[in-house]
């Protein structure tokens, strides 16, 4: 299974490198359209290779998706932690009650009750 993962990552690297080499042309990214920028007097332009724009967009999309899912699943994680605390509390209570039940009994029988 490890070799399949390495083969997949290697193939992905080859694809990403070939896409990057094929899309080295410089593109201009503008914060607002050119006509609106002239009206506002705010003309922010950045020049980047096309592959940086494409791969950066994919990376930003992945990060936003991960954050969205993490926020969406918050209620499930909270419920799981509440249930875990409740289980721990009940386990402590069962241990305490078994200790009370075995008071004054033979030690060997008490050990056998704990084991069973």
TrEMBL record:
Boundaries of every Lipopolysaccharide assembly protein A domain copy: 40-94
Keyword annotations from UniProtKB, A to Z: Cell membrane, Coiled coil, Isomerase, Membrane, Transmembrane, Transmembrane helix
Coiled-coil residue windows: 73-107
Any one GO CC term of the record: plasma membrane
Transmembrane segments: 46-68
Superkingdom, natural source: Bacteria
MF GO annotations: isomerase activity
Name by which UniProt lists this protein: Phosphoribosylanthranilate isomerase
Organism (species): Seohaeicola zhoushanensis
